[in-house]
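Build the 3D complex.
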Amino acid sequence: MSAGELSCEEIESLLPLVADGALDADSDPALFAHLARCVTCQESLACHDLVALSLTRTPMRAPSRLLRRTIPLPWAIGSAAALMVVGVGSFQYLHAVAAEDRISAGLSALHQQPTLKAEESDVISLGDIDPQHPSYILEPERHGAAASTPLPDRVGTDASLLHAVGNNNRY
Amino acid sequence: MPSAIPLPLTGVAASAIPTPIELLTREEGALRRVIQRYVRDASTVDDLYQEISLKVLRRMDTVRDPAALRGWLFQLARNACLDYLRREDRRHQDPVENLNEHAAAGDIGRNPGEHFLTQERLAAVRKALDMLPESQREVIRLRVEDGLDHAAIAARLCISRQAVEVRLCRGRAALKQQLENILGGEL
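Done.
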């Protein structure tokens, strides 16, 4: 190799630019003169060409760092299981809370219902009866009169019937 | 090579420039060695060598400088190999569209396993790219994917053109080394 000639190491450092198309025989005749003589550098150029060709088909716009991050399989499985446990536990807890809320709401609604008046109620508890109320005190004269008083209307018919039966005594 | 083919050496001193047959006979070993760096399949190497020989026979009269003959020959071989790889890549990308063209060329039954840009290789390139420093990867991306020239990349990144070329050189060299490591020397 003469003083003006390039060594294989120097050529090797420039081969990426040859593969890139930035250098040609006109722009760098010394480099291409070396390439014409040296099959080893030609082979190295072939490798750079293959890399350049591969690059043309490789998508280079990388996804975000978060998407590119890979999680080891055991960690992924463990994380998924933990998420499932938390999810199922949360569902059950919320379900129980909702049931409890429904019960509380029912009870409070029950307590907030207005007290039935005595006359509106079908069943009147004993607590609602005031024994001292005038309407519950039987007056003696009324009690005595009540014995001679005909039965209420509902049974009045029966009483009059009995009276008629007794009067006629047809049986 | 059939000797009936006329030698295209008109107007050039026959003593200075070898005949195409002499040139091809002398350089066949070196040529095949270089072709084998591009394609692995032996029959494809033969096909490409034949194709290059035909081009030499047809175009050798265009070479005026005997000193440039060997460089011209290797450049011819390089272009033929790259053209072949690009054709094969296009064929694998759209096999239906290129069916008739390749059937006419007689290479329809070629082994699909010899496709150069396999998914494994592209994945290896992707992995090797990820190992590069961000500055080098960005320059390569702008050059290859966006198709910018060195001056445009320099303007885009606000750096000098020399800095772009240094990053490009280092990035591609590192990429080649990483790929050789990943593919076990089968670059």
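The radius of gyration of chain A is 55 Å.
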